[in-house]
Amino acid sequence: MRNNVLWRKIARIIIMIADGMQISSEKALDLFYKSNVYNMLVDPRYGLQTMSDTYIYDEFMIELHQSPNN
After folding, report:
1. Is 24 within 8 Å of 50 (Cβ atoms)?
2. How many angstroms separate the Cα of 59 from the Cα of each of 4, 6, 47?
3. What's the predicted TM-score (pTM) here?
4. How many whole angstroms separate alpha carbon 7 and alpha carbon 64?
């Protein structure tokens, strides 16, 4: 996937996280960049780039809720 397309996808997901959790975009970005879902998204071996924004958002939220810190 082209980098600019991937970065736009990430930006849309960050907005979804910020809106869904009612937090700032900066906080959403920080949470997402620290997640396994982000690591899988930027690694083409997983193919997560081909999934919808909503699917990736849902996977992120599942990971977040399963985190031992929550």
Report:
1. no
2. 22, 17, 14
3. 0.90
4. 21
Residues in the chain: 70
Q: 29-38 contacts: CB < 8 A, separation 24 or more?
A: 31/64, 32/60, 35/60, 35/63, 35/64, 36/63, 37/63, 38/10
d(CA 23, CA 45): 31
Q: What is the pLDDT of residues 1-24, one digit of tens each?
A: 578 899 999 999 999 999 999 999
CA separation, residue 14 to residues 61, 63, 68 (Å) = 12, 15, 22
Closest CA to 32 of 64, 7, 54: 64
The number of helix segments (H) and strand segments (E) in the chain equals 4, 0
The pLDDT tens digits for 43-57 are 999 999 999 999 999
